[in-house]
Amino acid sequence: MVELTNKEFFQDLDQTIAAQLFEQTTYPWEILPLIKDFVLEVGPTLSVDEYDQVEEDVWIAKSATIAKTATINGPAIIGPDTEVRPGAFIRGNALIGAGCVVGNSTEIKNDILFNNVQVPHYNYVGDSILGYKSHMGAGSITSNVKSDKTNVVIKNGEEKIETGRKKIGAILSSRVEVGCGTILNPGSVVGHDTNIYPLSMVRGCIAPNSIYKNAGEIAQKR
């Protein structure tokens, strides 16, 4: 069993400007429908010395680097020293922290990225929360809708938690390393400091400090 409450699951709430959302809710997936309104509320309060409002509902830190061929739809906040590379597509309802990398051909939609998150090459991240210093290898994606279109159920050992939501991607805690070509199935929850092998297919909840090779082979780090 993995402790799934926000208070226990996330170690670094000081590494996102959305900390109050985590404090106001019990579980991470409860935050997903709140992202849009939070961005719209916080955006106008951001320092004009630090952020530019480049268009309606889009705020970008002056120190961020945005490629000319990137597409950014609001509502969105992009933090200081973050790099958005060529061909990136930010679809909206996106809160991207400081020092992040959103790479070439990466798509972001309804997400919170803590500070120093990297999704640098051909990633799809939808309806997800990526914790501090988490990294998704090239071609790894979140799958956020079940094939039968029913609500996502979080499977934590023998426990099954009904979320009431059809769209939930992945919830990663701090310093998670996702190997290249991995698929994080709807409702995947990965504890802090876990490494996932390349070309993996992840389901359910993975304990912190794990090495995930496949569903039947998950080792604890020593």
From TrEMBL:
One of its GO terms (molecular function) is acyltransferase activity. Residues 72-192 form the Mannose-1-phosphate guanyltransferase C-terminal domain. Signal peptide: none annotated. Keywords: Acyltransferase, Transferase. The keyword Glycosyltransferase does not apply. The keyword Cytoplasm does not apply. This is Bifunctional protein GlmU. It comes from Anaerostipes hadrus.
